[in-house]
Amino acid sequence: MLVTNLFFICNCKAQIVNNYINFYNNTISNLNPIISTKNQYYNLPFSNFYNELQNGNINIQGWFYDTKISPSTKYYVLKLFLSDMNMLSIASENSYHDPRISITFKDEIPNQVQTLMEQNHSQWNPVVAQFFSNIKVESIRFIGVRGYDSTDYSAK
């Protein structure tokens, strides 16, 4: 009975890891065409880039805002998370990369961003997308996209 239970546990863990690897590979496959053309979204409103993400079947799960330089109280960076909490947990437990997108805007993000994040618990939705839609993109970095178990941590 103990051997059967251990086999079942190991088999379930392997399936969960395989689910993450499949999620990661599908996400990167959908991201690669966007990564190669990211410069075409510079100096344009975020909505252009966001529409391309949606067209590429990229589902944003969460978000956070950040400063361009530290220390600062001015926010210019939007970080987009593509993994839900379950997938993020699997990635963390296995030391796998988690694909993310970091967008730096030309202009400061309005101060209402903190309230918006708190109200939405950092979950992405159409209201959040609309909030950022007209802010012009300065640069885009794709993080954790060089392979789920790669030793290359550099952004694209």
Task: Look at the structure and give the mean pLDDT.
Answer: 90
Oligomer classification: single chain
**Proportion of beta-strand residues:** 15-25%
Spans of at least 5 consecutive residues whose pLDDT stays below 50 are 1-11
- The ordered H/E elements are HHEEHEHHE
* Helix segment tally: 5
Q: What is this structure, in a nutshell?
A:
With 156 residues, the chain is of the alpha+beta class. The protein has helices at residues 2-36, 46-55, 85-93, 113-120, 126-132; strands at residues 62-67, 75-81, 100-105, 137-143. 44% of the residues lie in helices and 17% in strands.
Overview of this protein structure:
The protein has 156 residues and is of the alpha+beta class. It has one domain (2-143). Helices cover 44% and strands 17% of the residues. It has 5 helices and 4 strands, in the order ααββαβααβ. Strands 1-2-3-4 form a 4-stranded antiparallel sheet, with helices on one face. Strand 1 and strand 2 (75-81) form a beta hairpin. The longest helix has 35 residues, at 2-36. The chain is globular and about 45 Å long. Residues 1-11 have low confidence and may be disordered.
